[in-house]
Amino acid sequence: MPVRFYFLATAYTLAFTPLVFAADPLAVRIDRLIEAKAKTEGVPLAARADDAEFLRRAWLDLAGQIPPTADVRAFLADRSADKRARLLDRLLDGPDYAPRMADRFHLMLMERLGDHTEWSTYLRETFAANKPWDAMARDILRADPKADAVTRGAAFFLAKRLENYGQNPVDYSALTRDVGRLFLGKNLQCAECHDHLFINDYKQRHFQGLFAYVKNTTLVPGPTPRVAEKPTTEKMKFASVFTKVEMITGPALPDGRMVEVPAFPKGQEYAESPDRKTNAPGVPKFSTLAALSEQLPTVKNRDFVRNAVNRLWFVLLGRGLVHPLDLHHADNPASHPELLELLADEFVAHQFDIKWLLREIARSETYQRSSLLPAGVKPPDPALFAVALEKRLSAEQLFAAVCQAAGGKPTPALKAKFVKAYANQPREPEEEPIPSLRGALFVLHDADVLALLKPKPGSLVDRLANLADADLADELYLSVLTRHPTAEETATVKKILTAADGKRTDAISELAWALIASTEFGVNH
Amino acid sequence: MNRSPLCTPRDHRLSRRQWLGSAALGVGAFATPAVANELKKRRKQVLFVWLDGGMSQLESWDPKPNTTFGGPFRAIPTSVPGIHISELLPDTAKQMHRLALVRSVSTQDNSHSAGVDRIQRGDPKNRGVTYPYFGSAVAKLLGPGDGGLPPYVWVKPGNGGFIYKDAGFLGPQYGALALGDGKPPENLVRPPDLPAEADAARNELRKLADKRYAAGRRTELTEANSFAFDTADQLQRQLDLFDSAKLPAKDRDRYGTHDLGRHMLLARRLLEAGVTFVKVTSYGWDTHGDHFNGTASLHPKFDRPFAAIVQDLADRGMLDDVLVIVAAEFGRTPRINGHLGRDHWPEAWSVCMAGRGIKPGVAAGKTNALGTDVATEPHDIGHLFHTWYAALGIDAAAKHFYNAGQPLPIAHEEMHPVKEVLA
């Protein structure tokens, strides 16, 4: 009977599973799962984004920038069938990809805590070389002071978090939390002092196990980001504030095996002893950071893999399959559980190749859907990905886009102003667009922003001022909003120009400002 | 978004000013009884005066003259028979019939850093999340009011800016707009080379662009963007709020020209302009040394403008709408230290309130004869939050905040309001 049953089941599988399924590109399989769920929920999908919407979206996501006007014209005029795929290839292999990803991951990993040239160099070089994500995570968590000149910069992730301010002690709780949030997708904050009260999967031992990896790390002050370790010689005791029952843990990943803490005779813990004369911190024989960097970023650590693909999905789609990004647990399942597993399997099969995964996601119809709702339909649940979600532009993207649109020179001083006006506070993840009074006042009145919209050689307004009225609207909209104007918009521009009388240049400047200050410009839609 | 069938938000602001602000403008066409009632029903505001460092209860609300720890100052009668307060607050004493005291405040935190946070966040129980300050909580619960101004404005000495940390888990949009030394936020003033007509023209075009973009899309983002620009617009229209030169000299004299006087006067004008929650902070109340000389100069700085604003709010009929609170992170020790100072004393201190929902002219709770401890039921910050929410007509038992889907109580669950001071 069992044997027969087995055969039946096999026959069933063979009969109903299309054999080509596994051979289809990932992009196609993504769409199949997203479309199936929308169908089950009875939610209509938005139409395919038109070329202009797709072009702007892809540029902002993969180059951190809006396209120059000439590129917009060329892409919109291109009639070839494979132009979207070619554009994606061009952007992913182009010179802006590495800086863009460096910016994106800097924002995700440092959350405006601070920056360092060695860190940004590390990120740029690794993305330029398309280093696999597991290797990057290893660099970052290892913080090896003996690494090569570029890799050394990865230590900044830990080093910055090991700083202390004034009399406040180093915030090891926040460091532990960030390792859990950013590399495992688990915010164990509430599990520091007791098992999480609402999330059954998050136990105090999980927090404490992660804490044990980092609790003996210290900052080595100096111009380069550098982390030292004091010897870890025994397991760590902790107790829940509720039960007061003492527990013990060595370094351990959530639900992973506890790392044995080797015993060395007193005085022999160091491979290189600390030297007071030279201030060398010494190197212990047993390094918990080495253990962490070997055990966390692995194929077997499903938390690590799921977190990675969920965050890459978020980068392109504006929302995690698991959302919020750092609350992976049984009671907060992925919107599309099969898809999350599929992405995780494929990411592993492709050796954590970030660029490959981004390319596949960007090729999907899901990524290329319009943000316009299907006619007569109420906004569907964003978790269905049935309509494209509006993504926040970082201060850096907005800065680059404004300079590109207005034809102004991107200076570091102006960039700093944009960051001040649009960035969140440190530790406040920038995951959704939140228009602010601060940002509004900045674009309304900042002298440098307004100066960008003055007629200067090469500037947008100067270029427009030299065009005939009939050509002006098109050039304006292509340059700022990466699309042709509608008939209605062209009419508005004409009307404004006609009424401008002797103040034509001022009117053009006002038209350009209005588009730059608009919601459409301020997000990636 | 349209909150009233009667008129637009801007009409409200104008009508309210005409109606309440100045007799010279007369009773405008809007001030029909129906509109007046509508306004009254809707408007709830808070004035939160924060005396940072901790004001001595013994030299203010709960004097103990002629006792071991009483200090050199006398207690004086107030406008309410039977209630005496320190002679350092003579003007406030004349307002006592409008005030309510809780003299049985007993809180936990002895340090400034913990105390400021804990008192203003009102969450005694650590839930692993950062609770909003009272201002952010009220901004969230009551919304921005009808004047188009941000719901939570903080007038303080020193620097201004957008202070998001107050909002805790509610998110940055509920943070404070801080007016450093009463000055306007950065970039508020339109540059001189941008004429008003050009500014209006470009904003019309921006609105048109947003309207076109929003058609056929989710509208939340466009609405939020409009709100940010509208707020900027409203603040610009009220630039005179920041220009004290435009005030009658009489007002300036009554409030005083020192920072707390100027800031309290600005607070009154912000409340008149419809801001939901105005916090006024005064620093320097941490008198560990030379306390009695210190208080002799500090307390009058508070006394005059505070009495003036209570009087002004009453004159304008606004005390029915505005909940007034005077608090700090703790009181000061009864024991006088070797430097003739008083140290931190959360065990027994006082909080003053007035206005909306508050029973006027009462003193609730008592300390013992020496003022060292609370002799009646002690009231922690949770009790005060319950009291304030009750005064604002917010049901603290039924209403919750939500953090990532998790419901969180708006006030400490095991506590209750101080009923004696509720109207």
Automatic annotation (TrEMBL), chain A:
Top-rank taxon, per record: Bacteria
One Pfam family of this chain: PSD1
Record's keyword terms, sorted: Signal
Signal peptide: 1-22
Residues annotated as domain DUF1553: 292-427
Domain DUF1549: 29-217
PANTHER family per the UniProt record, alphabetical: CYCLOINULO-OLIGOSACCHARIDE FRUCTANOTRANSFERASE-RELATED (PTHR35889), F-BOX DOMAIN-CONTAINING PROTEIN (PTHR35889:SF3)
Protein name as catalogued: DUF1549 domain-containing protein
